[in-house]
Amino acid sequence: MRLNGESLTGQGYALPLDRSSVEPGIVHLGLGAFARAHTAVYTERAMQATGDHSWGIVGVTQRSDAVVQQLAPQDCLFSVAERGEGAAPLHVVSSIVEAVSGRDQPGVVVQRIASPATSIITLTITEKGYRMDPRTDSLNVADEQVQADLAGGPPRTAIGQIVRGLQERSRLGSGPITVVSCDNLPANGELTQRLVRAFAAALPDAESAPLLAWMDGNVTFPNTMVDRMVPATAAGDLAAVEHELGLRDKAAVVAEPFMQWVLEDNFAGPRPRWEDAGALFTSDVAGWEAAKLRLLNASHSLLAYLGLATGKTTIADAVAEDALRAACERMMFDDVLPTLQLPPGLDGETYCKQVLSRFANPALGHTTAKVASDGSQKIGLRLLSTVHGNLDAGRSPKWAALAVAAWMRFVAVTPVEELNDPLAADLHAALPSLRTASEVVPALLGVRSVFDAELAAHSGFASLLEHWYSVIDHHGLEGLGNEILHG
Ligand code: CS2
User: Fold this and answer.
1) Are 104 and 155 within 8 A, CB to CB?
2) Which of 310, 349, 378, 418 has the greatest number of C-beta atoms within 10 Å?
3) What is the per-residue pLDDT across 366-403, written as a single tens digit (0 to 9) for each?
4) Which of 414, 409, 461 minimizes the C-alpha distance to 437?
5) What is the pLDDT of residues 394-409, one digit of tens each?
6) Is any ligand 1 atom within 6 A of the Cβ of residue 271?
7) Are residues 369 and 353 in the same domain?
8) Do 62 and 28 sit in the same domain of this protein?
9) Do 326 and 468 reside in the same domain of the chain?
């Protein structure tokens, strides 16, 4: 039997919230597994803690309607199954009140954003969903879909949906609203604001001027840092959840027990008391974001690419290999920590140890292939600031270069049709026919949407990359072990 409100009650399971009292207050763009295991959980807990049930989530999917098909027949209920030490019992989450397909119902998305009941838009659309041009740090207005949205078609990009929703909101006089990016991007709030404003500014004058003026007084974009490892749900996970719950839940997600949310308290209107659910409000989100991206996410990418090069299917398998674990440690301690300004309250050494033990969670099944996806969108944010920081200080970014070289080799040995990356075609077009270190490294350094001209021209960095590329290519795990552990 399928999970829904009635079947759940039939099982004797009591939801923490009286569903009939939950009213929509948040529109969430990007209703993937992460949002369900993180943002929806914090919001449910905040409603439960305060008794203020006006923060139900209208979840919007981006590219496909698969999640709508999973959630709608289940009254938008789904389970979070924690995996690993300290895991809580299976929990059915009840904070999502509606699931909307952004692809098929863009008009509904605009209406929900414009509704006076909505005070917050949250986003988990992944790096590529922002349609940013890294060369300008602003909106990629050459993007076909962005152009179509600007031309007035039903908006399909997240930024287009937000701007059209804000436009309608200002027309209806529905009041202030806050846009909360929850993606792994440095200064994610400021970035989202830049992109939203760039879209608005690109509209015809008669539309853009009043909209920008309205946004000045009515919309804020706090920075946030989110953290929880959420692998793709596998068939085995669904079977395990069915066994535990006694009901078939097609929208179940698995996650590690750990979760964290750090936010800037810069809201234009009301907000849920997420702090009552364990979130931290601080004025120094940038410090937390940088630490998480450059320590956790950068090490994750290092393990994913080196793991794939050495036959490891999961992150836990990769970090169990001495050489790969040591490479993470060296990168965090030698390259990242000396170039990072840690926020008050965060101890670098403790953080790194905790990250490694979270990676080692054997029950999570987080695949190296998943973390390796969209590398062109992640490398710059996770690794290149560390590379720059070291080069600027006259130090060699030895370990961050290992991660970048491992990504380059991954791109070079993966057939283009299997490369899960929005720039797959461009990266492959840049590749030389000879896939050796001395050919591939300069070719990929020439891809301007990943490497800036200054870095591409740095001969010391190029030599480091070529060195590591050759070690991975010719000597595999054994060679890496010799270099990393004894080099
Ligand atoms: C991962 C992240 O897939 C990836 O690139 O590095 O999704 C990571 O699991 C989360 O940021 C953890 O909070």
Assistant:
1) no
2) 378
3) 999 999 999 999 999 999 999 999 999 999 999 999 99
4) 409
5) 999 999 999 999 999 9
6) no
7) yes
8) yes
9) yes
CA angle 283, 289, 295 (to 5 degrees): 140
* Chain center to CA of 270: 25
Domain holding 116, by residue range, is: 5-281
pTM of the model: 0.97
- Dihedral, CA of residue 169, residue 171, residue 175 and residue 181, to nearest 10: 30
- Answer yes or no: is the C-beta of 300 below 6 A from any ligand 1 atom: yes
Whether residue 229 has its Cβ less than 6 Å from ligand 1: yes
Residue with CA at minimum distance from ligand 1 atom 11: 227
On the 0-12 / 13-18 / 19+ scale of CB atoms within 10 A, 346 is: middle
| 162 and 259 inside one domain | yes
Please check whether residues 167 and 111 belong to one and the same domain.
yes
| Cα 60 to middle of ligand 1, angstroms | 21
End residue of a domain, out of 229, 257, 281: 281
| Of 126, 296, 377, 379, best ligand 1 pocket probe by most atoms within 8 Å of the beta carbon | 296
Phi and psi for 450 in degrees, rounded to 5?
-115, -50
Check pocket membership of 289 for ligand 1, CB cut-off 6 A. no
* Domain end position, chosen among 247, 264, 281: 281
Buried b (16+ CB within 10 A) or exposed e, 167-184: bbbbeeebebbbbbbbbb
Instruction: Characterize the bridge pairing of strands 56-61 and 96-101.
Output: parallel
Task: Assign residue 330 the CATH number of its domain.
Answer: 1.10.1040.10
C-alpha span between 266 and 282 (Å, rounded):
10
Q: What is the DSSP string of 307-353?
A: HHHTT--BHHHHHTSHHHHHHHHHIIIIIIGGG--PPTT--HHHHHH
* Distance from C-alpha of 390 to C-alpha of 393, rounded to nearest angstrom: 5
- Asked whether the beta carbons of 119 and 176 are under 8 A apart, the reply is yes
Same domain, 263 and 293: no
245 and 326, same domain (yes or no): no
Tokens of 304: 């994913």
Q: Pull the structure tokens for residue 300.
A: 């994750």
Q: 197 and 80 in one domain? A: yes
Does the beta carbon of 184 sit less than 6 angstroms from any atom of ligand 1? yes
CA 289 to chain centre: 12
Q: What is the pLDDT of residues 279-326, one digit of tens each?
A: 999 998 999 999 999 999 999 999 999 999 999 999 999 999 999 999
One-letter amino acid for residue 213 of the chain: A
